[in-house]
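Retro notes - structure team

What went well: the batch runner handled both jobs without manual restarts.
What didn't: labels got mixed up in the shared folder, which is why I'm recording both outputs here explicitly, each with its sequence directly above its tokens.

Job 1
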Amino acid sequence: MTGKKVVRLCLTSETKGNNHGITVLSDNNPLARCPVSNVRQDGSELTFDIACEGKNSAHASARYLLAPTSFRGRIAMQMGGKNMTMTEVQSGRRTGTCDVNKMPVL
């Protein structure tokens, strides 16, 4: 199944061990609530892992290319005990300054 989803996010510019606010955006995806680890940024490339707790839980690895006014990347996911894999492809562009008080809660 392929679909397109448009979401407004406030991304941070901090590079000290964080994923800049990039996350899984798929509806009803358990990985959206799981912790991020192994965050690495080498120049414009950002990579990180996502792993839910528990036996047979979902996990993923992400790879993004960051630019001053845009980003693009993908998150490769394994859905734990369901023996299912999928990849979420994302791209974004800067649209202006962030007002975190007006951003929707994901």
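Job 2
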Amino acid sequence: MHNLKTELPNCLDDSGWPLRWHVRAYCEKNRAFRDFVLSRFRRINGLEGDADFTKADDKRWNNKIDIVLVPDSRLTDY
């Protein structure tokens, strides 16, 4: 559980699991962008205006990578 933190949200994402939403936000306590599970928030205190960090500042979120998916070699054709 996150206590006494200030998160500056910039993205809302559905992980694909039912009712499992994540907020991508800048965490001032850790000084980094992090993913937070929305259902773990107990309350949201007042909003204070525009954030100092935006989605454009989140290098990991904006970095595109290529992945190659291959079947496990232990699998057989059936």
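One thing worth noting from job 2: The chain has a mean pLDDT of 77.
We'll revisit the folder naming next retro.
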